[in-house]
């Protein structure tokens, strides 16, 4: 690698890269400066920055010193040398230009490395991999000046990501809002909405000033705690569109997020109807005053509401920018209307207003209205349910989170301010309750003549008699007139304008929020049937389909035309959403995940939990059956999403808590000593890739499912670099295969110089605490006679290693073998060819559709496509060739054998040849198998060795032992002739099998024999064969007995013979296993670690 450090770099130049960590040049020779300048003190350095040009490292100079440094300041480009960087030299005018992170592939920290691919906030850049930094640079790699720096500092990007970022640049015109316009304005408009102007006076009349303040205080408490929780979650990372749904789903996972997302979107859609009905009520009241009713009050509300929601839909569809401008104008009108109300309370009332119950501030009215006066059917919580939607405005800004410039900090600021704004409702209760009586006739003739006894009411004391309102309905007063605000104000039309602003703005905000939340839910593809609504249009990705759906829902509820009926429905759904938001914050804090680092620190996990409990309690107090229905719907959706298991991973707190819980349980297990009653087979299965030996995995999983640990292990043998690369690239894929096939097992892999070393590592290091493997499961090496000697040594060696580590061994043999990797390879090739064939057919179909369209241009396009796909028919013909090949090429029997343990085993037997006591593992495994659905119809038959003259006694003893173990069995057989010699044909077969591996040293002279032993130490010597002749007889004889008794069994479980190290050669041991299991049904050779795994003690 050549580096350039020419003198030209000392010159000032235009900065070309201002994102790199800069260290500017320092002159070491102070004498080179102009004479007379004091250089005794070193220059002062300003702070270092990785930021832009304005923030990079600079040097501050004293007056008069700057000229000495001007010629040496670097303006941003990294500096290179022809050979190497200069060493420190105190005797020359060397200027040190080395920039940190310059002469290395190692990258300095940058935000681009941490972005997601396709991030709207900037391009995602890949840092150099550990492999690129750790491995030696290839000698033939040419590094151009600056190229290494650009890669190291993240200035280059792959083509695919570059394309994605270009696409994001095309969306740069999307409208984004700040925290005032995007969050605060929307929240204020929703809080100061329909309830403030149309229902606040009614709430004061029903609950009184005291309880009214408590109602608003309770609402503020709920929304305030929720606001804190929302701000904490929102500032714990970048938040995309979806608002409350996004916060809950990314915090608690798709199960909770998906269930509450539908409810929350529906609540916002219903809120549109509530605000529009409030607007229509006001219009109908105006029509009443002018005697211009169209039909009747109810139908007029429906007509006006329907027209209004159509107009609002048009404004929303026009785009977010128009909607935002409308919101600001409406807020200004609203603020003027609120000020107008306060001014009106101090303007002296006239006779008309007095007859309608407005007397300005009066202590008697305040005292009378301080307590509650609930009408029939109303109570504290029913009134609270009607008011609560006014407080739900705190999520108005959150619902359009995808349209905010920098969502995180904005939401915290906006929500905190909006919660404070909510308190203004409390200040409006007092003037309302202190100025207006509860009931008034509206007749100026209802004055009291002096001298007549007063009925004790506040109005009576002020000269008006409204006592007839007790017996007949009146139209005015806090309890009857929803337009009290307009009457009290200084200028009534301003309040009307404020009501229009409040209702229309809130309706507009909800009409935008509901589709945005619903679109975010559909984009996550949690509910596949709703994918249709995920599509967006225009630069702002407007959910037009969601707008139509929201419009339909809103129209349906507008037809109810009763505000007091619609409001409690919304309260119920919003409280459920708030409960989960608060629980999300608590859950994320409680999980103690290192990723939980909210920038908004004003929250407390226990306060959030209190908020969640409070929301749930209020739901049930308001309307218990509605709360039950809400949670039943939510629970049903939760179960549905859990069952479907959407393919998403959002790093939720549920995952974090699951990890913490698993870790705690694992640590707790280490404090408990193992007990024989809790023993379960915990297996390492040498499957290689789990999909390559499915039968071996299936039979192991049959006795570990839901009860024991199962680890599918693979050993990669070869050069470490290649092995590690292959291993790492396949880990996720193979674990995903296990999950897809619903096998509760882990996948583990190691890279090693030889197979035995890899297995030895797995045996020692696999597992965690008490969850460590105690059984090794391997497939029988069917082709051992054709295998290289090293493979046989490794195979037998891992059995020895397992016994050394006191780990039980299970060897499984089936007639066709386990490895189906070749079949999988052929299937993969066929799938590729089929995909190419389908692609070709699609291309031809497109060409046919385009034929005749576009004139000459269409003709050229057609020719171009045909040229591209010309070679494909060759591959298509190969499909027919492969498909026409004989089924035997794919080894159909092998494929069928690989699935034999997936099928339900019919009525039959599992024959257990418990010849040697290994602690009970040989008996426990078949017993566990009989508990599984696939094996439950199989009965256990127990075969044990015994003396011919004691068969009945030993049978009774074994039956007694099995009954104490509480293991059911169909029959017990005592085999008394195990130790007799096998027949000549069987023994001859065994001798012929081992003949190629015998040394026959007894037939040679001593020198030749010793030489052969040194050259071929792996061969079976005559001395060895003679020493273990009785054992060899036993293996051959056992096969004869197995053929006689268990030929028709579904499965044979047999004690595995142990080869004593140093006494039994590997080839002889393999010959034993071969003759023992030859021509039999599936066989499990089992040997425990000779520690009890069965007990009859309670």
Automatic annotation (TrEMBL):
Q: Where in the cell is it found?
A: Cell membrane
Q: Show where the Amino acid permease/ SLC12A domain sits.
A: 182-684
List all Basic and acidic residues biased stretches.
159-169
Q: Where is the SLC12A transporter C-terminal domain?
A: 693-1098
The primary site where this protein sits is membrane
Q: Which residues form the Amino acid permease N-terminal domain?
A: 89-156
Stated membrane topology is: Multi-pass membrane protein
One GO term describing the cellular component: apical plasma membrane
The annotated region (Disordered) lies at 147-169
One record GO biological process: sodium ion homeostasis
Catalyses: K(+)(out) + 2 chloride(out) + Na(+)(out) = K(+)(in) + 2 chloride(in) + Na(+)(in)
Entry keyword set: Cell membrane, Chloride, Coiled coil, Glycoprotein, Ion transport, Membrane, Phosphoprotein, Potassium, Potassium transport, Sodium, Sodium transport, Symport, Transmembrane, Transmembrane helix, Transport
Membrane-crossing segments per the record:
183-203, 209-239, 260-281, 301-321, 328-347, 379-400, 544-563, 569-590, 602-626
Gene Ontology MF term list: sodium:potassium:chloride symporter activity
Q: Which residues form a coiled coil?
A: 823-850
- Family according to the record: Belongs to the SLC12A transporter family.
Q: What is this protein called?
A: Solute carrier family 12 member 1
Q: Which organism is it from?
A: Oryctolagus cuniculus
Which taxonomic lineage is given here? Eukaryota, Metazoa, Chordata, Craniata, Vertebrata
């Amino acid at each position: 690698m050549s580096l350039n450090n020419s003198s030209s770099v000392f010159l000032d130049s235009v900065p070309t890269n201002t994102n790199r960590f800069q260290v500017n040049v320092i002159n070491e020779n102070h004498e080179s400066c102009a004479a007379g300048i004091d250089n005794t003190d070193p220059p002062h350095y300003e702070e270092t920055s990785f930021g832009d040009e304005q923030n990079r490292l600079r040097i501050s100079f004293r007056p008069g010193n700057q000229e000495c440094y001007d010629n040496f300041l670097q303006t941003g480009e990294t500096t290179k040398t022809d050979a190497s960087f200069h060493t420190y030299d105190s005797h020359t005018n060397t200027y040190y230009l080395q920039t940190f992170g310059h002469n290395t592939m190692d990258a300095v920290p940058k935000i681009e490395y941490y972005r997601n691919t396709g991030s709207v906030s900037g391009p995602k850049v890949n840092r150099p991999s550990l492999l690129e930094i750790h491995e030696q640079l290839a000698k033939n790699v040419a590094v151009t000046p600056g190229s290494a720096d650009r890669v190291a500092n993240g200035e280059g990007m792959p083509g695919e990501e570059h394309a994605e970022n270009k696409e994001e640049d095309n969306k740069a015109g999307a409208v984004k809002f700040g925290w005032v316009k995007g969050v605060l304005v929307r929240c204020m408009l929703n809080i100061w909405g329909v309830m403030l102007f149309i229902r606040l006076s009614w709430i004061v009349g029903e609950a009184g000033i005291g309880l009214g303040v408590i109602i608003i205080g309770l609402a503020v408490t709920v929304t305030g705690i929720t606001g804190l929780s929302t701000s904490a979650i929102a500032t714990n990372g970048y938040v995309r569109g979806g608002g409350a749904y996004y916060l809950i789903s990314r915090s608690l996972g798709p199960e909770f997020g998906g269930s509450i997302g539908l409810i929350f979107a529906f609540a916002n859609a219903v809120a549109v109807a509530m605000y529009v009905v409030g607007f229509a009520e006001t219009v109908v009241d105006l029509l009443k005053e002018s005697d211009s009713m169209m039909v009747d009050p109810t139908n007029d509300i429906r007509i006006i509401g329907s027209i209004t929601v159509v107009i609002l839909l048009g404004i929303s569809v026009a785009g977010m920018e128009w909607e935002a401008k409308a919101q600001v104008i409406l807020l200004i009108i609203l603020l003027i209307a609120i000020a107008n109300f306060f001014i009106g309370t101090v303007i002296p009332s006239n006779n008309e207003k007095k007859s309608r119950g407005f007397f300005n501030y009066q202590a008697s009215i305040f005292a009378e209205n301080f307590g509650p006066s609930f009408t029939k059917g109303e109570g504290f919580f029913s009134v609270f349910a009607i008011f609560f939607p006014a407080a739900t405005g705190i999520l108005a800004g959150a619902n359009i989170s995808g349209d905010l410039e920098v969502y995180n900090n904005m939401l915290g600021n906006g929500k905190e301010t909006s919660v404070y704004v909510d308190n203004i409702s409390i200040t409006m209760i007092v003037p309302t309750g202190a100025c207006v009586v509860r009931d008034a006739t509206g007749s100026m003739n209802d004055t009291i003549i002096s001298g007549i006894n007063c009925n004790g009411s506040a109005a009576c004391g002020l000269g008006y008699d409204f006592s007839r309102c007790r017996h007949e309905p009146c139209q005015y007063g806090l309890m009857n007139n929803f337009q009290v605000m307009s009457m009290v104000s200084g200028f009534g039309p301003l309040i009307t304008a404020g009501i229009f602003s409040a209702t229309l703005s809130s309706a507009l905000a909800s009409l935008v929020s509901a589709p945005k939340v619903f679109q975010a839910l559909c984009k996550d593809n949690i509910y596949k049937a709703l994918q249709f609504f995920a599509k967006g249009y225009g630069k702002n990705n407007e959910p037009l389909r969601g707008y139509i759906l929201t419009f339909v829902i809103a129209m349906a509820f507008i037809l109810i035309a009763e505000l007091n009926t619609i409001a409690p429905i919304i309260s119920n759904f919003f409280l459920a959403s708030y409960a989960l938001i608060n629980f999300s914050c608590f859950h994320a804090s409680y999980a103690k995940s290192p990723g939980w680092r909210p920038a908004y620190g004003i929250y407390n996990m226990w306060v959030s939990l209190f908020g969640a409990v409070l929301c749930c309690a209020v739901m049930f107090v308001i309307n218990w059956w509605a709360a039950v229905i809400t949670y039943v719907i939510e629970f049903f959706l939760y179960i549905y999403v859990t069952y479907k298991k959407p393919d998403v991973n959002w790093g939720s707190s549920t995952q974090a808590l699951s990890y913490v819980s698993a870790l705690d349980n694992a640590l707790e297990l280490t404090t408990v000593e193992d007990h024989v009653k809790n023993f379960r087979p915990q297996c390492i299965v040498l499957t290689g890739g789990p999909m390559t030996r499915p039968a071996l995995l299936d039979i192991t999983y049959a006795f570990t499912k839901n009860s024991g640990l199962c680890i599918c292990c693979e050993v990669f043998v070869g050069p470490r670099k290649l092995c590690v690369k292959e291993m790492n690239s396949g880990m996720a894929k193979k674990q995903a295969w296990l999950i897809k096939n619903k096998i509760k097992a882990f996948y583990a892999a190691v890279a090693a110089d030889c197979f035995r070393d890899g297995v030895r590592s797995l045996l020692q290091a696999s597992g965690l605490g008490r969850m460590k493997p105690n059984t090794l499961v391997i497939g029988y090496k069917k082709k051992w006679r054709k295998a290289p000697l090293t493979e046989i040594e490794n195979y037998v060696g891992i059995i020895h290693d397992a016994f050394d580590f006191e780990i039980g061994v299970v060897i499984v043999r089936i007639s066709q073998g386990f490895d189906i990797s070749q079949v999988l390879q052929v299937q993969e090739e066929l799938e590729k060819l089929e995909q190419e064939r389908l692609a070709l057919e699609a291309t031809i179909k497109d060409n046919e559709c385009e034929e005749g369209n576009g004139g000459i241009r269409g003709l050229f396009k057609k020719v171009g496509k045909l040229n591209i796909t010309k070679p494909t028919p060759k591959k298509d013909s190969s499909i027919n060739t492969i498909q026409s090949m004989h089924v035997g090429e794919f080894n159909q029997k092998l494929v069928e054998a690989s699935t034999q343990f997936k099928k339900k085993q019919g009525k039959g037997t599992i024959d257990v040849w418990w010849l040697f006591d290994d602690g009970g593992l040989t008996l426990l495994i078949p017993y566990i198998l009989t508990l599984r659905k696939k094996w439950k119809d199989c009965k256990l038959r127990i075969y044990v060795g015994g003396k011919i003259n004691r068969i009945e006694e030993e049978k009774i003893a074994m039956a007694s032992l099995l009954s104490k173990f509480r293991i059911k069995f169909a029959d017990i057989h005592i085999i008394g002739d195990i130790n007799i010699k096998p027949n000549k044909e069987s023994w001859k077969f065994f001798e012929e099998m081992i003949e190629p591996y015998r040394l026959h040293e007894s037939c040679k002279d001593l020198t030749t024999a010793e030489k052969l032993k040194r050259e071929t130490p792996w061969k079976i010597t005559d001395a060895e064969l003679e020493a273990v002749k009785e054992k060899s007889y036993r293996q051959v004889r056992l096969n004869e007995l197995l053929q006689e008794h268990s030929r028709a069994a579904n499965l044979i479980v047999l004690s595995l013979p142990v080869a004593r190290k140093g006494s039994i050669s590997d080839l002889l041991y393999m010959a034993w296993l071969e003759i023992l299991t030859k021509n039999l049904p599936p066989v499990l050779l089992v040997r425990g670690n000779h520690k009890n795994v069965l007990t009859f003690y309670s």
